[in-house]
Design brief:
elongated, alpha+beta, seven-stranded mixed sheet, Beta-lactamase
Amino acid sequence: MKELEKGIRIRIRLIGVVFILGFALVAMRAFDLQVLQEEQWDERAERQHQKVIPLTPQRGTIFDSNGEELAVSVDVDSIYAEPRKLEDQALAAKQLAKALDLSSKTIISKLKGNSNFVWLKRQTSPSQSDSVKALNIKGVGMIKEPRRFYPNSNIAAHLLGFTGLDPKGLEGLELKYDKMILGRGGYLVMERDAMGRGMATGLPQVQGATRGHDLYLTLDKNLQYIAERELAEGLRKTESKAGSVVMLEPSTGKVLAMANYPEYNPNSFSRYKPSQWRNRAVCDSFEPGSTFKVVLMAAALNEAVIDTKQKIDCENGEFRVGGKDIHDHKRYQKLTPAEIIKYSSNIGMAKIGKMLEREAFHKYIEDFGFGQRTGIDLPGEVVGLLSSPDKWFEVDLAAISFGQGISVTPIQLTAAVAAIANGGHLMEPYIVDRVVDSQGQVTQQNKPRMVRKVIARDVAQTVSQMMEMTTEVGGTATNARVPGFRVAGKTGTAQKVDAVTGGYSADKWVTSFVGFLPAENPQLVMLVTLDEPKIGHYGGLTAAPIFSRIASQAMRSLKVAPTEELHAVETLPSLEQIIVEAMSSERQKVQAVATASVAGGPQMPDCVGLSYRQVLELMQEEQLNISFRGRGRVVEQSPVPGMAIPYGAPVWVRMAPPS
């Protein structure tokens, strides 16, 4: 009996221990759930009876150097619907379609889905928003969302870029600084029951939104407007295909203005072709032509392979190098280095390039920043084209000496000439001055950065003085003069490569002018390039006057006092004068043809209807150098048959397949 009682007590105790352990485990689990994991389960509970809809983040503002707004985010209405609350979906769809400028099918397809919340249209116009409000449909509401807006329309569009609906940056600074500008998107929180249905109590609430950082640029909106206006007018007068202007502060590398044409409006970018969005100043490359001569001159003087007083024989305008003939636009005899720059002699530069030789010349080209990115804080920058010096033949060295056989970007060329204006110091160009957060604290401050010292200060001053001579009487850039200021610069005229023949085109050019002022204390350096001008194909006739007009207004805007005496009769060259001078130049060519004909010069044979082989045979027989365009048989030629060929004039035939 005692043994039985003892066994019962043991079993009772064991059961008690099991109960105690079980209770302890339950208590520990309850403590874990109710205390340690309280926040986690609260969040789960919230998610069960709340629906969260992400909203568009608010981007920061982009300002110019004077605090003027260039890109802002404004609150607009986004329209949503809760289908289960709609009393008559068909009628609502019909009314909403008209108000939102959408099709009824589009609205119905959204309302017929399984979702309890649908966006009908986001970021609507004020008129559409007002129309929806007037309908007062139960189950249709609106919430404020930020929309990107560019208050100055086309101004600086290629620099600013644009955003999508997200709103992620898609082009320009909006893309480059997207992570900084883009804020954190808020959430639209809506109450719902256990079945996931929207509850009638309470209005949707916006939570968790933070604003993005602001950008302050080095860009001056006034200078940007001047550059864009004068570029557009210049392109219209010269009937050019495209163009660009780059303006830098040489001592710091700050971008003061950067204009491109064709233009577009970032507020409605989808209406334009993607080619119009492209920032040509950093994304396009071209053969610089004679503007590149200042680079070789600076290198040769820095290496002391030439002396400023020596005379270089320019061979009366014709010189053979590596089996190819090099011509000057006039028959020059012996010229000093300064005169070679002033008159833009190809032969003189080819001889200087030979004195410097390949390796040294290539090193200076790289030191000036060509063949590499400048580091500017804009997307899409290309490096241009610069081949290795061990691949240069004798004719390649000569061609590169006067700007052919190498391609550069406008920003590269402007930065390189800025180094000459800055005493030989190459500065890295930049456009964002600082980044400021929503509390007004500076999170990033960009400062001028010297890349390297390229040439000695005295060499830079000597080259600057040579560049001044181009704007003097007899120089190639007299139209670039600015009343009250000494201007240093260089014109450029480069034939474009013909995509059909692979050679240089006979009638397609890139003209340019790059310069700085005041020459004795440069405040800005600027490059103007025009692509395929139809009226005038010399940089001095097309690009130089545009430089003059922009620079004159920029000096007033920057409040730079004139350094030279102003004469009452001194005026800016009008854009109409471009056409007059271009036409005058063409008339002079016609007169030269007539003169050459009387003097018994070579005459243009009749090539119309001939095949490629027949024209080659004719070239050998007549000892002519004719460029080809297209394939097939000759349908057009210049000069016309029987007319004399003036010295240095382009001679070409255009071919097409037989019809």
